[in-house]
Amino acid sequence: MIRVLVADDEPMVRQGVRAVLASASDISVVAEAEDGHQAVALTQRHRPDVAILDIRMPRMDGLRAAAEIRRTVPDTSVVMLTTFGEDDYILQALGDGAVGFLVKSGEPEELVIGIRAVADGAAYLSPKVAARVVAHLTTGAGAAAGRRSAAGRQVAALTPRERQVLALLGAGLTNGQIARRLRVVEGTVKGHVSSILSRLAVDNRAAAAVVAHEAGLVPPPERPGHGPRGERGE
């Protein structure tokens, strides 16, 4: 069972997230918080597998809460809930240890898929979030070409197999799913992922996924329930 904490200062949002997750037999909401301080305290108490944090909350925002959770409860994966217009916060959250990013207005199925992915050790970028992050990073004269060129150079340093793994990682697949897709053992994939993070000089899978999107390695997203993002197989 995947144990989840939901933190948002709007009761209706918390209720909606809980209702969506209740449809999944393998997910249980163990606690709810209305601000960042509560989110950190309840995460420390319940130690859920996943903490879903709104970026903007009173007393302590989701960014500070994510950093504190990463410091004190490193086994809990953090997923950020975002709305349009918060791209700068998303970029900061990457550095604060978040491994999943979901849009509040996204499809309900995507919430379940994202929670399952990060609970299984993968990074998950909502297709809308990934597109916005890449677009935000590449705004300004010459910036787009510069970012793509830099990502291309980073990716060029990888082996062909590592580029395959990075593309699947960027598409939201877990190590187990990547292993089945490439017909190798999971330990081999873990080795590739470790090497990829080192070669790209990034701290986590979410940051590597952004590089994959910038370099054009990730194909257009498929509908929920189909292809890489809909693949469950666990």
UniProtKB/TrEMBL annotation:
Name assigned to this protein: Response regulator transcription factor
SMART domains annotated for this entry?
Answer: HTH_LUXR, REC
Which keywords annotate this record? DNA-binding, Phosphoprotein, Transcription, Transcription regulation
Molecular function as annotated in GO: DNA binding
Family annotation (Pfam families): GerE, Response_reg
Instruction: Kindly list the positions at which 4-aspartylphosphate occurs in this protein.
Output: 54
Q: Which organism encodes this protein? A: Actinomadura rubrisoli
| Taxonomy, superkingdom | Bacteria
All copies of domain HTH luxR-type, residue ranges: 151-216
Where is the Response regulatory domain positioned along the sequence? Answer: 3-119
Its GO biological process annotations read:
phosphorelay signal transduction system; regulation of DNA-templated transcription
Q: Does the keyword Acyltransferase apply?
A: no
PROSITE patterns in the record: HTH_LUXR_1, HTH_LUXR_2, RESPONSE_REGULATORY
| Residues forming coiled coils | none
